[in-house]
Amino acid sequence: MAEERQPSTDIQQLKSIEEVDLQDLCDATEAAIVDGNGFGWLTVPRRAVLESYWKGVVLMPEREVFVAWLDGHIVGSIQLLRPSRHNHAQGHIARLTTFFIAPHARGLGLARGLLQMAEDVARKDGFEQIDLDVRETQTAAIQIYEQGGFTRWAVRENYALVGEDYVTGFFYTKELAHRRKAGAKK
């Protein structure tokens, strides 16, 4: 009886993008969009649009892209957004966005790994809080956020328009460092 081969997985920060990795990332993005988890896209855009999007994201200094690998191919991502250098008042808050795993790569811990890496980098870089928002229909992502210690702090009706129907959105936050709360006495 042959041993079942375990898939090879990895999580890495994407500092530059080679053509083969760009194509993997676009394939994974398309699969996630078709599955209803396209971080805002409801239909798959032209391939050139996806390629331009990912090439641009990697170049943006306020964004860090982390990718999940399965057997040598990129299958998911998350982005850590830094606030504008001019936003002193909210300079302690990072945001997470574009979090997805292609359907064929789910259930291997890659989503948790991506979330943890983004959180670790945010903490190392001195951020005190991470915020994110998500459609209520993204139940797997919501479960990962809540299991990861994120707290839902707001709900917004009409958050997204999917087809003819509005979808509610949930807003989450996680403290990475503790400071005196707003309104607390010294």
State the CATH superfamily name of the domain at 9-128: Gcn5-related N-acetyltransferase (GNAT)
Please state how the strands of the largest beta sheet are arranged side by side: 1-2-3-4-5-7-6
The secondary-structure class comes to alpha+beta
SSE order:
EHHEEEHEHEE
* pLDDT averaged residue by residue: 90
Describe this structure in words.
The chain is of the alpha+beta class. The protein has four helices and seven strands, in the order E-H-H-E-E-E-H-E-H-E-E. Helix 1 packs across helix 2 (47-59). The radius of gyration is 17 Å and the shape is globular. The N and C termini lie far apart (68 Å).
Helices and strands in order:
Layout: E1 9-14, H1 19-34, H2 47-59, E2 63-70, E3 73-81, E4 93-101, H3 110-124, E5 129-135, H4 139-147, E6 151-162, E7 165-175
Helix pairs in contact: 1-2
Summarize the structure.
The protein is an alpha+beta fold and 186 residues long. The chain has a domain at 9-128: 3-Layer(aba) Sandwich (Aminopeptidase), CATH 3.40.630.30.
Keywords:
Aminopeptidase; seven-stranded mixed beta sheet; about 190 residues; globular; alpha+beta; 7 strands
